[in-house]
């Protein structure tokens, strides 16, 4: 074959190879920068003008904070059907805009679902508070069955209203993927023996819950098209970890740049490897944006939470992008500064070197037993500092 003929034949092949390589680049491109980074603080809405002023002063004074997670109970916003009152959120957001502080909206259904939803015919699920770290342990509560159409109609409507009001705010950078919840924004549902029997009587709850999560992944993403969509991981009923993986896979397939997974059980009592939610973060850390929320307060010696240093080790090991602190920790200049210093050191040294440093200093420990349960009155008192106890 003459050189000219060879070039004539090979040129289309070279062009095709170049296009194939170019087409594969996105598969290996670096993931987009995370929407949320740094230290965040969890906050309920201030109840009055005095509390709002105190909140503003605390946030303004703490330069370690990157953002505020606003925890909002649905029943406190919409007490009558179709008549939401956003004034408390508006006042808080106005303060944050004046400071230039980013915020997340965590809008909670579950036990915070308004009574009128049940009056309109939504199917309810009665249970009791079982978390010993909550002040209302043992109290009877009710939540909606997550796939009930009356509940969904009402919840979907108020999500759309929230989006119309806050999605265009550049400081609103994140929303929590709520839809099937109990007391917090995590994926928890009642799972005592008698609770599981009631769920089984309702049919194939695994299949139905997966459809609920897919539906509300899309609805939150539609209402807030620029924001991070944050899934607060936890074990769901008696379902295996693969259930959470199905939800994560769906979110990443639809919204890869902004779907985020969060571990809400970060501890500083030992390494968290072996905990289901922590292991899920590790499994997806190269594919999904991810962050952490403290299990408990670091105050009072961190008797339930553990040490700052071991908590930092867990965040660094999983390459966490952000860290949500409890109310008291995030508003404490001393505690948040200590967390920021330790986290910076941990990131600078890396997991292995930081672990060796903690071992050399006698700060590393292996602790057996239940590492998540506080003891006595102080554990319950601390639980009231945050909506996520």
Q: Which outline best applies?
A: globular
**Pattern of helices and strands:** HEHEHHEHEEHEHHEHEHEHEHHHH
Could you tell me the number of beta strands? Answer: 10
Enumerate the strands of the largest sheet in spatial order, edge to edge or round the barrel.
1-2-3-6-7-8-9-10
Mean model confidence by pLDDT: 88
Strand content range: 15-25%
Unreliable spans: 1-10, 12-29, 368-389
Question: What is the distance, rounded to the nearest whole angstrom, between the alpha carbons of the first and last residues?
Answer: 77 Å
Radius of gyration: 23 Å
The largest sheet, given as strand count, sense and whether it forms a barrel, is: 8 strands, parallel, barrel
Helix content: 40-55%
Any descriptors?
389 residues, alpha/beta, 8-stranded parallel β-barrel, two-stranded antiparallel sheet, globular, disordered N terminus, disordered C terminus
């Amino acid at each position: 074959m003459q050189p000219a003929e060879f070039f004539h034949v090979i040129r289309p092949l070279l062009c095709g190879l170049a296009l194939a390589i170019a087409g594969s680049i996105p598969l290996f491109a670096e993931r987009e920068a995370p929407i949320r980074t740094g230290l965040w603080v969890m906050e309920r809405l201030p109840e009055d003008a005095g509390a709002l002023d105190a909140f503003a002063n605390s946030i303004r004074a703490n330069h370690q904070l990157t953002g505020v997670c606003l925890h909002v109970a649905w029943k406190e916003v919409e007490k009558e059907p179709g008549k939401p009152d956003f004034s408390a959120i508006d006042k808080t957001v106005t303060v944050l805009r004046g400071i230039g502080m980013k915020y997340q909206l965590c809008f909670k259904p579950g036990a915070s679902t308004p009574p009128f939803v049940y009056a309109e015919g939504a199917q309810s699920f009665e249970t009791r508070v079982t978390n010993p770290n909550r002040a209302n342990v043992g109290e009877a509560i009710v939540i909606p069955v997550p796939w009930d159409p009356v509940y969904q109609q009402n919840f979907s409507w108020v999500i759309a209203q929230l989006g119309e009001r806050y999605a265009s705010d550049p400081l609103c950078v994140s929303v929590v993927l709520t839809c099937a919840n109990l007391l917090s924004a995590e994926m928890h549902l009642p799972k005592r023996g008698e609770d599981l029997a009631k769920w089984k009587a309702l049919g194939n709850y695994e299949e139905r819950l997966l459809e609920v999560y897919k539906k509300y992944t899309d609805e939150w993403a539609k209402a807030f098209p620029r924001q991070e969509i944050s899934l607060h991981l936890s074990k769901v009923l008696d379902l295996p970890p693969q259930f959470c993986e199905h939800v994560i896979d769906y979110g990443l397939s639809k919204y890869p740049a902004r779907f985020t997974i969060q571990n809400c059980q970060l501890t500083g009592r030992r390494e968290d490897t072996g905990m289901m939610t922590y292991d899920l973060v590790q499994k997806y850390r190269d594919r999904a944006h991810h962050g952490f929320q403290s299990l408990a307060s670091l105050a009072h010696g961190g008797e339930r939470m553990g040490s700052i240093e071991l908590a930092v080790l867990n965040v660094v090991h999983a390459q966490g992008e952000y860290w949500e602190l409890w109310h008291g920790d995030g508003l404490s200049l001393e505690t948040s500064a200590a967390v920021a210093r330790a986290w910076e050191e941990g990131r600078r040294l890396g997991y292995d070197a930081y672990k060796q440093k903690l071992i050399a200093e006698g700060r590393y420990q292996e602790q057996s037993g239940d590492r998540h349960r506080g003891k006595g009155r102080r554990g319950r008192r601390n639980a009231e500092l945050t909506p996520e106890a």
